[in-house]
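can u do me a favor
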């Protein structure tokens, strides 16, 4: 990943995930020539989410997002998917940290059922 706004965004997301879900494990998966940094995945009693960087956004995909309540409407991508939901963050966006952390906690609770 090049040094730009996405690096800071991923760092903030990582901090929010680790704070909201103590004990979460981060692994890098799916390394390939077109994405040598791979994809950070976060798990706790199952996959919680992945964090991918694109040219114009950072995408946080929740593995079981369709099953999670989102009263603050943080999810803004993959809304029609059967299982997952995502949060796309662009350079000018402000992430609602409290609502995002609540989604992380909800995803962990879902995994622990």
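np, heres the sequence
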């Amino acid at each position: 990943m090049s040094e730009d706004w996405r690096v800071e965004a991923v760092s903030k997301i990582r901090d929010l995930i680790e704070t909201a879900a103590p004990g979460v494990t981060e692994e890098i998966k799916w390394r390939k020539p077109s994405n040598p940094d791979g994809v950070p995945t976060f798990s706790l009693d199952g996959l919680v989410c992945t964090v991918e960087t694109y040219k114009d956004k950072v995408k946080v995909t929740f593995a079981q997002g369709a099953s999670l309540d989102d009263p603050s409407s943080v999810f803004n991508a993959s809304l029609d998917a059967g299982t997952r939901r995502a949060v796309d963050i662009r350079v000018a966006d402000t992430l609602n940290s409290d609502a995002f952390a609540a989604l992380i906690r909800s995803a962990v609770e879902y995994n622990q059922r």
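Residues 5-20 form the longest helix (16 residues). hope that helps!!
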